[in-house]
Amino acid sequence: MFMLSMDDKPRFRYLEHTADVYYEAYGQSFKDAFNNAVLGLLDTVTGGQAGKLRPKEIIKEIEGSAVNLEELVVYTLSDILTLMDTEEIVFYDSEILDYKTDRESEDSKFHVKVRLYGNKDRPKESVKAVTFHMLKIYEDKNKVWHIKVLLDV
After folding, report:
1. Lowest CB count within 10 Å: 24, 42, 147, 149, which one?
2. Cα–Cα distance list, 2 to 9, 13, 151 (Å)
3. Are strands 58-66 and 89-101 parallel, antiparallel or unpaired?
4. 8 A C-beta contact, residue 32 and residue 11
5. How far apart (Å, rounded) are the C-alpha atoms in residues 149 and 70?
6. Are 19 and 68 in contact (CB under 8 A)?
7. Chain-centre distance of CA 91, in angstroms?
């Protein structure tokens, strides 16, 4: 199953996995692919409702930093999951406000700021964790970025 953007380009698709949720997000840039990876997590939690509405009841922003793209993806998705669990919020949509690379910093080279839109709600699917297992991030020969994520459910 594919989730399509407004211009009918695939945002992400679910991949086969025996026990957990595995999906692949796409984008013309890492920033776009990352936002679609966030939507893949939200789509799993909301039972397929992510990106279909943008509630204005609760708007939160989170920031993440990491030394590589893999850590940036896993840590930021994990922070979103923790925020949903601790504040009993379900997010339905997201946007990447800022993404930058800081090659001069020794600590964190990649930074992201994400805005999330949600409501006080109960998740349709419980996600225990975002894992590094089977995580893959790459840019293909057509300059399309791919992020594969495995969620422990």
Report:
1. 24
2. 9, 4, 17
3. unpaired
4. no
5. 10
6. no
7. 11
Phi-psi region of 79 (alpha: psi -120 to 50; beta: other; left: phi over 0): alpha
Nearest to 31 by CA among 109, 110, 133: 110
* Rounded Cα gap, residues 153 and 125, in angstroms: 8
- Which pLDDT score, from 0 to 100, does residue 17 have? 87
Question: Cβ(27)–Cβ(21) under 8 Å?
Answer: no
The pLDDT profile of the chain, 153 residues, written as one tens digit per residue, is 444 444 556 789 999 988 999 999 999 999 999 999 999 999 999 998 888 877 778 999 999 999 999 999 999 999 999 999 999 999 999 999 999 987 655 666 999 999 999 999 889 889 999 999 999 999 999 999 999 999 999
DSSP sequence for 79-127: HHHHHHHHHTEEEEEEEEEEEEE-TT-SS-SEEEEEEEEEEE---SS--
Q: How many residues does the chain have?
A: 153
As given in the structure block, the two tokens for residue 22 are: 């595995």
The answer to whether 78 and 130 are in contact (CB under 8 A) is yes
Start-to-end Cα distance in the chain: 18
Confidence (pLDDT) at 51: 80
